[in-house]
Every structure is written in structure tokens, then in C-alpha cells.
């Protein structure tokens, strides 16, 4: 499975972006898709995740109420809708998958840059 994140860009504070993560390759059968981000000089952090079958979601406290994660099974694509963006959301955003609920995320795609200006 290959993952490709897209949709990043430059936006002013308060603006919105929608990231996409397209999965390709072998049949996409994985437990969940997660979104992570890494800001310059900081470690990569968890942002949100969605279970591929039951659509259960999780969010980091820092994005709750502003970000929404979703997926389209037919398109093998996950989405991260980001509203009310803040400068501290500036980072490279990555999507990743894991095979079970207890496994770590083991497949990461190339990231997409999100820059929020104040």
C-alpha cells in the first residue's frame, strides 16, 4: 500500500484546508488511518484517526472542534478537514495506516506542508 497526502498550502489564520490521503497498490485492508504532523524542531505528533470500517474517530486535544477526519471507502481515500487554522498548526502533515487496533502506525506517506500565517 502506498499513501500520498495532498491538499496542503498557505492559509491565513482562521482559514480552512482539506487534506486528502489516497491509498493505492494492493487491496487496502487496514484497521485505521491516522494523521500526524511535524513542525520544525519538534517531534511528530498524532493529530487524528479514523477506523476504516466503523468510522470511529480520535482527535488530539489541540485540534478537537476544529478538525474533522473522514474517509471514502470506494475511493480508498481519507480526508482531514481543518477549520479555524492557527499559526501553531503549521507543520508537515502525514497520513499513515495500521493493520490492527493495537498495532503502531507502520506505513507513512509523503507529507504535505501546511503553513498558517498570522
Following the backbone from N to C, one meets helices and strands in this order, namely EEEEEEEEEEE
**Uncertain parts:** none
The overall pLDDT average reads 93
Sheet with most strands: 7 strands, mixed
Number of helices: 0
Could you tell me the number of beta strands? 11
Q: What kind of oligomer do you see? A: single chain
What's the alpha carbon Rg, rounded to whole Å? 13 Å
- Which structural class do the helices and strands define? mainly beta
What proportion strand? Answer: over 45%
The level of helicity is under 10%
N-to-C span: 37 Å
Shape: globular
Care to describe what's here?
By secondary structure, the protein is mainly beta. The protein has strands spanning 2-6, 9-12, 17-24, 32-38, 45-51, 57-59, 67-72, 77-82, 91-98, 107-108, 112-117. Strands 2, 4, 5, 6, 9, 10 and 11 form a seven-stranded mixed β-sheet that branches. A four-stranded antiparallel β-sheet has the order 1-3-8-7, with no helix packed on it. A hairpin with a 4-residue loop joins strand 7 and strand 8. The mean pLDDT is 93.
